[in-house]
Amino acid sequence: MKITKTEKIWLIAVIVFYVAYNLPFVPAYGSAKGTIIHGLITLIPLWIAVYIGMFKTFKIHPLRKIKEKGDEGNA
């Protein structure tokens, strides 16, 4: 399976925001205002990137429907 351009951009965006969110000592310990700003700049875009990326990826590669064991004989 080849990785598409959309998936590459999605992967890069998620990695960048994840690393930015997990930088040590950012925000400063005990800084409430810094924590809010850090969350707005990193955590919210990380969530947005993940969910938009999943939506676009699932449009390109739809999930297969799995048949249940009891449904084989029913029409």
Report on the architecture of this protein.
There is one protein chain. It contains two helices and no strands. The mean pLDDT is 88. It has helices at residues 5-21, 32-60. With 75 residues, it is an all-alpha fold.
Q: Gap between N and C termini, in Å?
A: 34 Å
User: Segments where pLDDT lies below 50 for 5+ residues?
Assistant: none
Helix content: 55-70%
Biggest sheet, in brief? Answer: none
Element-level helix/strand string: HH
* Strand elements, count: 0
Number of helices: 2
Shape label: elongated
Query: In percent terms, what proportion of residues is strand?
Result: under 5%
Radius of gyration: 19 Å
SS class: mainly alpha
Average per-residue pLDDT, rounded, comes to 88
What are the SSEs and their pairings?
Blueprint: H1 5-21, H2 32-60
Helix pairs in contact: 1-2
Quick structural gist:
The chain is an all-alpha fold. Helices cover 61% and strands 0% of the residues.
Properties at a glance:
75 residues, mainly alpha, 2 helices
